[in-house]
Amino acid sequence: MKRRFNQSFGEGVDTATRWSLRVALGVIYLLQTVVGMQLEGAAHAIARPGYQFDFPRDYGSHPDFKIEWWYVTGHLKSEDDRRFGYQATFFRLAADPETSRISNPPVSQDIHLAHMALLDFKTKKFYHQERLQQSPWMAFAKEGDMELKNGNWKLRRIADSEGPDFELQGSILADISLNMQLSAIKPITLFGNKGYSRKGSDPSAASYYMTFTRLQTTGSIRLNGKSLKVRGWSWMDHEVSSSQLAPQQVGWDWLSIRLNDGRDIMAYRMRTTRKEADPFSTFAWVDANGDASHQRLLDEMWKVKRLWTSPKTKNTYPVEVELNIPDPDSDNVFQAHIVPLYDGQEMLGHLSRIEYWEGACDVLDSKGTNIGEAYMELAGYGDESDLSALKR
Fold this sequence. Notes:
ten-stranded antiparallel beta sheet, 1 helix, 24 strands, 50% strand
């Protein structure tokens, strides 16, 4: 029996719940049932070293792999210096390859999950929405180049542009719309071993990891009936995998930093059941050419400075941290204090059951001087969070 579903759920910090509890629980049960049917036991490709990347082909979808995501986060300012942080994420969860061959011609049965969020720093309001689609007419991720759709949310490469330029369109309920153009200032970065990024001791716990660390961003935000021109910087991750987490891993802390001096940093701390950093935890410096130099991220390099407990989920997140890592351009230790613009940047997975914290942050040095901007993701901190789709 074919099952298709198209649902959306979202809220702002002061927005009442749109759905009854009965409907929400029904959709959660449906997602668990369908994902369980289609993801468990299916034969999917595994990320392996030596893959030859080819762009624009690899901007697009890789349907032979179980899970794939395109992640855009950024800091924006309006013409009157009003600050915003935003997130747009498109997930593709693969069906069993045999399932898609039932129809003639074959029609994709993949599940498409998407998240959109906006932080208004002035009002300290965090708006977000989650969408879940299976109909290929409502959501898709095309092969051959980047063209993603989930309802009226879209992310695509502008094919006739001079450089790697992208267009993002999004909305959050009836309150907000986003229209952005993103232009790459640095070449694409391939993290790990030429794009093969190990996440655990099992060789299958890996991904192909492609990133634009500096995307000059211009566009507009329509917020509560008012249109604001904005500009700023964005970071775009694209990962392709069939198994991100090893059995002993329970979640991760991820950080992207754009420094005022032109350098960028990516770090991820894979957390184990013993609350330690997995040996495959990594940080990387990215130079002006987009080239990355990697080192192991140790527990002593990642110091939690402050915790925040969500009043909605009761999850406790380390929202303020201090990073202490070797500086490749000197013999000194680079220290960065990561401070959130607002604590309540928690994404509530009403449909997916995935609750995580994803927030815009300032980067301060030891004297409290601003030296950059960051986005931090904290996943696997809730009892209700279900990251099983990221394990084999």
